[in-house]
Specification:
The chain is of the alpha/beta class and about 650 residues long. It folds into 2 domains: about 325 residues, ABC transporter type 1, transmembrane domain (ABC transporter transmembrane region fold); about 220 residues, Rossmann fold (3-Layer(aba) Sandwich). About 60% of the residues lie in helices and about 10% in strands. The protein is built from 20 helices and 10 strands. The strands form 2 sheets. It has a 6-stranded mixed sheet, with helices on both faces. It starts with about 20 loop residues before the first helix and ends in a 9-residue tail after the last helix.
């Protein structure tokens, strides 16, 4: 990523800041509403009809009080009473229809935004995910998407509704009695001032409440996932975590109480102001009735309209806060959608349907970018996992500077001027000290990253020119830490080839020496492996991951032959399986066993990001360099017999 997309820095960072709502932002927001414009237009029509119905009831009450009851007109009384019954029924039906349309629009926008977000994230390189919190991505996929759709399906519609209803109510009130209408309008500045002040106060409290909720959620996320729960139990920190959680939950409780208290005060103040207006209208209106200026029914109708007017104004006073919040969510969603692709694909990429498997590194240099350049911006969008204190210690990390990460033996570049060529079908062993750059080199082959300089070729084609799907089908990779989805063994295996038959699954598992184990499980291939495969041992996970790659049947195999943490039986089974799998394929192996190194057609010795030696076992021993030193210290002297770094 080479910098953030423009406009994303305008998000709110302070409690009282609001985002800059630009014309470009509004146009883009409306673009998401465009597919639903028919339903939105129908919603507005329904709202207008419902508003018109709500204006009729006070007029009926006025007629009942002033004419029908004093005139003892029974037929008119029956007709108006029936109208008072049918009007709420009609309004209720319209409200149900409006709600249905609103939900359809809202869920449609959520669907569109989530698809756009997920599709963009699937195009990002591995570096983006190593520099971005999973909780933040989940927040944008859920909280921000929901907050954004409110702008289209709720906030904007409510603003239009309240403006129309308020204007209609005022027009009817002036037509009934202009003097009382002016009296009711006199208190509006006070009403708006108090509403905005209290609304801002409630907003700040709500923000603090969401922050404390986020801190509590962060702690739960850290201590209730499988790794965190295991750590708590191993170190006997159950009571400590219970106390920490009680403290966080207590803060959430206190903020909830405070919010409820302030809200009740707010409602009381609004009610008091409304009462002042009502008292003035009825007081002055009653005096004018006594003077026979107008009728009692007019006062009753005006009082009803006044309540509706004040409700509309209160909603409009809160609307800017709600709208600004929705715009923040939209900007955060757009920030992800606008992320530039680090691994762009050509418009007319090369599809390698058949490949010999020849690999060439040509003067390849690679540097992991440090700092926060690949991170999403830090913005106060409450309820996320981003703007929270450290999950356990409570330390505020929001404004701390993050130093650039130095990788691979404390150097700036992970790889530097690496060149070598692997013939089709060869076995290449990568050896060298820990952190020398071996894993980075293997990550470049399936194009999880692009080189900073230089190029990598497969069968003479630059990887940047090859279709990503084609490259993915060509290269199979087994990492040191095998990842399994929380699903059945069958589902994890089928991830390599969705149309594989049961017989093909079993053949792949036999090759990986895992079929016998799976067949003895109560549910066989339908056994759930648990989160990250925690219900299986390390050796079992590795063999299932190996079977998954076998099922994929790649032409090029890239693997980390890490067996140091396995028992001898599991290690032997995996080594036997690897010998069968690598046969006939181009294999790049981070080698830890002498047997693999001795079998290699080419050994690359990596040190501080450079290929310092290459050749066969005998040739490298004759050089008397780093390889000879590693062989002498780590194998011959018996430190971890049978392996080499």
């Amino acid at each position: 990523m080479h910098g953030r997309p423009g406009g994303m820095r305008s998000l709110a960072n302070a409690p009282d800041e609001t985002p800059k709502i630009t014309r470009e932002l509004l146009v883009r927001v409306l673009a998401f509403a465009k597919p639903h414009r028919g339903r939105i237009a129908l919603m507005l029509v329904i709202i207008l009809c419902a508003a018109g119905i709500s204006l009729v009831s006070p007029l009926i009450m006025r007629d009942l009080i002033d004419k029908t009851i004093p005139g003892k007109d029974l037929s008119r009384l029956l007709m108006l009473s029936l109208a008072l019954l049918l009007l709420p029924v009609a309004r209720g039906g319209l409200n149900v229809l409006q709600r249905r349309l609103s939900v359809q629009v809202g869920e449609g926008v959520i669907y569109d935004l989530r698809r756009a977000l997920y599709n963009r994230l699937q195009r990002m390189s591995l570096r983006f995910f190593t520099n971005t919190k999973v909780g933040e991505l989940m927040s944008r996929m859920n909280n921000d998407v929901v907050g954004a759709q409110n702008a289209i399906s709720s906030t904007v519609v409510n603003i239009i509704t309240n403006i129309i209803e308020g204007a209609a109510v005022l027009a009817v009130m002036f037509s009934l009695e202009w003097r009382l209408t002016l009296i009711s309008v006199i208190i509006l500045p006070l009403f708006i001032m108090v509403s905005r002040q209290q609304a801002n106060k409630l907003r700040d409290i709500a923000r603090q409440q969401m922050e404390t909720n986020a801190q509590m959620n962060a702690m739960m996320h850290e201590t209730l996932n499988i790794g965190g729960a295991l750590l708590v139990k191993l170190f006997g920190r159950r009571h400590l975590e219970e106390e920490r959680f009680a403290e966080r939950a207590g803060e959430v409780r206190q903020m909830g109480i405070r919010r409820a208290y302030v809200a009740s005060v707010f409602i009381a103040i609004i009610g008091l102001i409304s009462s002042v207006g009502t008292a003035l209208v009825y007081g002055v209106g009653g005096y004018l009735v006594i003077l026979d200026a107008f009728t009692i029914g007019t006062i009753v109708a005006l009082g009803s309209y006044m309540s509706s007017l004040y409700g509309n104004l209160q909603a409009l006073a809160n609307a800017p806060v709600e709208f600004a919040t929705s715009m923040v969510s939209f900007e955060r969603v757009f920030e992800v959608i606008d992320l530039p692709e680090e691994l762009p694909e050509r418009a007319d990429p090369i599809h390698l349907t058949e490949s010999a498997g020849e690999i060439e590194f040509e003067d390849v240099t690679f540097q992991y970018e440090g700092g926060d350049e690949a991170l999403l911006s830090n913005v106060h969008r409450y309820g996320s996992m981003e703007n929270v204190m450290a999950a356990l210690s409570g330390r505020d990390t929001e404004h701390e500077e993050t130093p650039a990460v130095e990788r691979s033996q404390a150097r700036g570049k992970a790889l530097e001027h690496v060149s070598f060529k692997v013939a089709a079908g060869q076995l290449v062993a990568l050896v060298g000290p820990s952190g020398a750059g071996k894993t980075t080199m293997t990550y470049l082959i399936p194009r999880l990253y692009d080189p900073t300089e230089g190029r990598i070729r497969i069968d003479g084609h630059d990887l940047r020119d090859v279709a990503l799907d084609s490259l993915s089908a060509l290269v199979g990779m087994v990492t040191q830490e095998s990842y399994l989805f929380h699903d059945s063994i069958r589902t994890n295996l089928l991830y390599a080839r969705l149309d594989a038959t049961q017989a093909e699954l079993e053949d792949a598992c036999r090759t990986a020496n895992i079929h016998h184990f799976i067949s003895q499980l109560p549910d066989g291939y339908d056994t759930i492996v648990g989160e990250r495969g925690y219900r299986l041992s390390g050796g079992e996970k590795q063999r299932i991951a190996l079977a998954r790659v076998i099922l994929k049947d790649p032409r090029i195999l890239v693997l980390d032959e890490a067996t140091s943490s396995l028992d001898s039986e599991s290690e032997a089974l995996i080594q036997e399986a690897l010998q069968r799998v690598m046969a006939g394929r181009t294999s790049i192996v981070i080698a830890h066993r002498l047997s693999t190194i001795l079998a290699a057609d080419l050994i690359l010795v990596i040190d501080r990001g450079q290929v310092v030696e290459q050749g066969t076992h005998a040739e490298l021993l004759a050089l008397g360099g780093l390889y000879a030193h590693l062989y002498d210290t780590q194998f011959r002297k018996g430190i971890n017999p049978g392996t080499i770094a």
